[in-house]
Amino acid sequence: MKQKRIILLCVCWLLTLSAQAGSPPAETSARVSRLIEDAAVRAQLPSGRAEAFRLYRLSYDLKPTLTAAREMALLVQSYDGEQFVYWMNEALRLDPANNECANLLAEYYLSRGSFTAAAELLEHHVALSPDDVPAYIRLAYAHANGGNLEKATVALEQFLKRNTDADKRAAAEDLLFRILTEQGKRTEAAKLIMESFRKQKSAGPQTLLHTANRLLTAGYYREALAIVSEHPDLVKGDLALMNLNTSLLIMNGKRDEAQQMLMGIATNKGFTEVEAMASIARLIASDRDEKGQIRKCYLPVGAALTKRFPQSFAVSSFYFEILTLTDDSVALGQHLATMARSFPDSTNVRLNLVQYEFNRKNYNAADSLLHAIIETDPTLATPYLFQSMIEQTVRQNNKAGIQILDKGLLRVPQTDSTERASLYLAKGDLLYADGEADKAFACYDASLQMNPNNALALNNYAYYLSLTGRDGERALAMAQKAVLLEPDDANILDTYAYLLYLKGDYLMAAAYMRKALNAAESEKATFYDHYADILIAEEHIKEALEYLRKAEQLEPSDERKQQIQKLEKSL
């Protein structure tokens, strides 16, 4: 109250002095208005917004000024949008070309989503103040969000003509690039980005990378490759750019050049083995053939990397993984032999050699390697599993296979429960094949006790239980759990479908059997037989005959022939 009295006394004193001096009323009002404005400024300091607004309003009523109108607008902006707009418009009425007020009001409209109002305001403003550079970017934003891309383009072009700030120009170019792309003006959009880069006299690798990525992200693969190819001096030695260049070459179907770029990564001494491996792995994986395998044209890249790091087990293993994803068994065998010489103490290398010989059906060589591994480390489960497979599949000697697995169970530590579980599972399979179902089921129980989430053990146990007609509910539960663990495994899907069939749920059985057939990598007579059983139960005889005939072509049997003849007669 004391401050108010002082201000009123000052006003009265000024009016009295002016009257005595004969000052014109307009001049007196202006002096009083300035005095009140000063008081309003001081009133704002202790957060007295209401008092400051009242004083500015008193000042404005005496003498309308831009300052008073603008300050009143700012005082109410946070809580009274209508008053803010009113006073900002008053400020612009007093000074139509005022950059600050026009941009503040435009920002307010944009923040509220009033794009049309913002566009109208800024169109009028830039006509009066064509050098107000920030207004053009706001105008472009308003038009773009309002759906008028043509006008947004014009505004951005005006902005770029008038602005020299690199960061602001980059932001404007990004927006214009997106707008041109949305308009379908692909040539203009790509040209904008490429010319912008070319105008930069001291552009470095990061700028080139950013430019190419902008083009790539928008789908301009050829243009991105063109801009990168123009600057081999920047690409060479920069891993990110070399990666991008390789990707672009692959996308544009230039595999020979891509291979050369990858060779550059493999042989560049500036890159660590980890960096080189990561880049090569990602890039060659992105360009597999129609079979999903690594293309042979990239094999020299892996070979070059192993030559550069001959003592690196990681690099040799990396190249081995590449070779396993090709059909070049000769190169794979040669590399494994090299690895065995370079890393003679590596059990993993020797096991890979075993797998290689096993796949080639060179079982004697595989068996010799397995004996050597067991002599070196008798506590590993894998060699015993391989040996038992050789006894079962090659020598048709299940009992010898069981003895080998028993030897493994004596040697593999009790603490290695997962390894021991795999041995019990294999033993269970051999015992069941040898006609000893009870002993087999005991082994499956032991395996699942050690590893309850082994989908293969669950599947085999469930299937063999169903074949013996025992504990159907438990078998179905185990098969269901196996499907949850391995939903894309054809054998597991087949087992579950067959158990559903035995339960009488033909609809679900047929659904899972179709999944099994789709997931199978190759045709199986058993799958066709099971599906035929389900179709017969559903009384789809013609379709059942179709699958039985397929099974007969794969594995002829007298029993199935009789079944086919019987069904044919029933039609």
Give a description of the structure.
The chain is an all-alpha fold and 571 residues long. Helix content is 78%, strand content 0%. The protein contains 33 helices and no strands. Helix 25 runs antiparallel to helix 26 (437-450) and helix 31 runs antiparallel to helix 32 (541-554). The longest helix is centred in the N-terminal third of the chain and has 20 residues, at 2-21. The chain starts with a helix and ends with a helix.
Q: What labels would you give this structure?
A:
single chain; 571 residues; mainly alpha; 33 helices; elongated; disordered N terminus
The gyration radius over C-alpha positions equals 41 Å
**Number of separate helices:** 33
Number of strands: 0
Main sheet makeup: none
Indicate the structural class.
mainly alpha
Q: What's this entry about, in short?
A:
78% of the residues lie in helices and 0% in strands.
Layout of helices and strands, plus pairs?
Elements: H1 2-21, H2 25-44, H3 49-62, H4 66-76, H5 81-94, H6 99-111, H7 115-128, H8 133-145, H9 149-162, H10 166-182, H11 186-199, H12 205-217, H13 221-229, H14 232-235, H15 239-251, H16 255-267, H17 273-285, H18 299-308, H19 313-324, H20 329-342, H21 347-359, H22 363-376, H23 382-394, H24 398-411, H25 417-433, H26 437-450, H27 455-468, H28 472-485, H29 490-503, H30 506-519, H31 525-537, H32 541-554, H33 558-570
Helix pairs in contact: 1-2, 2-3, 3-4, 4-5, 5-6, 6-7, 6-8, 7-8, 8-9, 9-10, 10-11, 11-12, 12-13, 12-15, 13-15, 15-16, 15-17, 16-18, 18-19, 19-20, 20-21, 21-22, 22-23, 23-24, 23-25, 24-25, 25-26, 25-27, 26-27, 27-28, 27-29, 28-29, 29-30, 29-31, 30-31, 31-32, 32-33
